[in-house]
Amino acid sequence: MVANFDQVLFETLDKDGVIESSRQMCQANGWDDHQAVVGDLKSWESMNVVTLEFKESSSLNLTENGESAVKNGSPEFILYSAVPAEGISVKEANEKFGATAFGSAKGKQWIVIDKGLVKRKQDGIEDTTKNLLVNLANLDPKGEDIKALRRAKLVEEKTLSYCKISKGEKYNIRKKECSDLTADMLKTESWKDETFKFNHLALGEIPSSGFRHPLSKVKAEFKQIFIEMGFEEMPTANFVENSFWNFDALFQPQQHPARDAHDTFFLKDPATSHDFTDDYLAKVHKVHQEGDYNSLGWRYDWKLEEAEKNILRTHTTAVSSRMLYKLAQTGFKPKKYFSIDRVFRNETLDATHLAEFHQVEGVIADVDISLSHLIGIFTEFFKRLGITDISFKPAYNPYTEPSMEIFGKHPKLGRIELGNSGLFRPEMLLPMGLPPNVRVAAWGLSLERPTMIKYELNSIRSIFGNDLNINSIKSNPICMFPTDFE
Ligand code: PHE
């Protein structure tokens, strides 16, 4: 950076509109590094603040010999001055001062050869060559004098490049280059009018780790849709649950096959837990064993030991039952809840089944809700995910009536079940203390299956578990679901 350069440049351009030669500008300001000046000019040019026109000029300059002639006299003058009164031999004169100097002094008739000796011919001569060199700038560049000086190698022609500087398109809105991109600039979008010292549009380096798993991307997408649709998230941070909240509270009989070790993982240590009130326990006990609230119940010998058994939760509906109980106890208000978290089942593994998977749970509690609300919610929810081809089928669930399964179309596997839903039975809701006219529509969806549909994956193992391909995770787009649902 040349000191003061910008100031001088813009003052001159403001005044004159144009600078004919960058070299003259250097001379006028005592800058000896023309190259550096051109560097500064180019950086303004790249911002369209100035335009540059590169030109060449040739000029006549003194050669090294020419410089020495200006200082010490021309070679023929030096020879002439050195000839003593008695003369010197031709040989010596030639050897000492050179043939050119000798020829030139002789040609100008400053010396003669008299009997083999070189002698001065006239006195008080003037060094015309030196005078010409001193006066070089005023000579006619095409004249005979210049030709003679060039032949004698006292002057030479040099070409020099320089540039003509004019105002550029952005001359009037020129700004200093910014060295920082600040949060403020981003907020106000003022960065668009700035020029930066660095390339602020360069893509960052791709990190070598820390890519989001496709399931977690889909999870985030699901969550976003629930939140947009007015749902609150339920706390699901307990993989271990007791059978009471996972099954009994849901009016699922204790002899139901789902409660078998073939379907459920039981815990050895701690094998049991008890975190429900006696009052609620008594109501659940009664409705299972003898019936209540106009229901005949399941009619079997209900056992507390069975309800206390710890398991890995088989569904997040266990969380829903805790939430609904709490809602009933704290005073009912209409609610929409959701959760997305892991559940565990002792399954035979295949392309669409794993022993752990993620469940997308939804609960809507309000007065007079029906199955058509559920159908409406699913249609809207899946549409927002970009899945429009869904179908429903009547189903059976111990804790819902009516119940309905939801299916989606996989591009290769055909129709696959996405989840199960229904209206919770009064035998589940009334012991909790919910008002009799409150209906609760609920569902449990798989997170993996819609993901398989959207990513066109044939096996659940390619998104969850050991077979996961790390490269496909790295190369996956941020999310596969469309953001425009029109
Ligand atoms: N819990 C059921 C399952 O795991 C899903 C479900 C939830 C069904 C709520 C009805 C109501 O498949």
From TrEMBL:
GO biological process: phenylalanyl-tRNA aminoacylation
Keyword vocabulary terms for this entry: Aminoacyl-tRNA synthetase, ATP-binding, Cytoplasm, Ligase, Magnesium, Metal-binding, Nucleotide-binding, Protein biosynthesis
UniProt-recorded Gene Ontology molecular function terms: ATP binding; metal ion binding; phenylalanine-tRNA ligase activity; tRNA binding
Gene Ontology cellular component annotations, sorted alphabetically: cytosol; phenylalanine-tRNA ligase complex
CDD domains referenced in this protein's UniProt entry, alphabetically: PheRS_alpha_core
The Aminoacyl-transfer RNA synthetases class-II family profile domain, residue ranges: 216-482
Cofactor requirements of the protein: Mg(2+)
Residue ranges the record marks as coiled coil: none
Principal subcellular localisation of the protein: cytoplasm
Domain of life: Eukaryota
Enzyme class at the top of the EC tree: ligase
Subcellular location: Cytoplasm
EC number(s) recorded for this UniProt protein: 6.1.1.20
Similarity comment: Belongs to the class-II aminoacyl-tRNA synthetase family. Phe-tRNA synthetase alpha subunit type 2 subfamily.
The protein's name in its UniProt record: phenylalanine--tRNA ligase
Species for this entry: Heterostelium pallidum (strain ATCC 26659 / Pp 5 / PN500)
